[in-house]
Fold this sequence. Notes:
This protein is α+β, with helices and mostly antiparallel strands. 38% of the residues lie in helices and 15% in strands. The protein contains ten helices and seven strands.
Amino acid sequence: MSACTPLLGCPELAEVEILEQVGQGSTKSVYRGLWRGHQVALAALAEPSLRADFHHGLQMLRSLSPSEHVVQLVGFCGDVIVTEFHRRGDASAAADLVRTAGGATAARLALRLCRSYAEALAFLHNSPAGRRVMCDSNDLQKTLQQWLLTADDWLVVADLDALPDASAGPVRCGRRPIEGEFAAPEQRWRDGREPPGYDEKTDVWKLAAVCDHFLSAAPDGEYLKLELHGIHKRCRSVPARLRPSAAEVVEEYDRVVHGFSESEYVSPSMVSRIL
């Protein structure tokens, strides 16, 4: 929004003009809309049986806003939530942007995406609403769909429907079996048995794979992976207690960025844009 405006309510949201549908999930349908000349994203409940999840997402948006790491809440009414609109869509398109950027620009962009992702996780793990764990992240594609790519190459978390609080003890992400190497070992079902529970370190396990996904799209991504091998290996420690916090990962990303010389990938001016 171009000026400070209180959260919109039902009377104001009645003015929103729906332009097109831009997304569809099991819980909600998402549309691009227009309110008094401003583009907005409108999410409407699509499955009544998942109303509790939908309103949990709204509660999280209200509790975590404002933050540079979370999509901006614009208003809500009943089973409708309106947020800021990001024309680039979700983070599924981020790797293509890195791939087409080329050279030092690609390296800078990949590192910026890694850092913004890790920094947002650090915020969620130490948020005003508790130690939140991202449960809709059992594979890479599903994880990327939870995030939006801003115009200045930053990631913000947008889907908060499944964000339990680990402050009081271990959590579980749903009742369906979780399998596959992307999920943290402590999340995976063994012999049909549900795991006892876990915490925010499951997000740290996946952080390494998400960052490697962005780095792989850069022309010299393998070099960058080597630079980050140490911290990413720690992220993939099988005992969750041995993994670093997301905040520690951010610090390591910063160290690697600042360690580049002008003759390598990132110049001092690039560093300032990354950070």
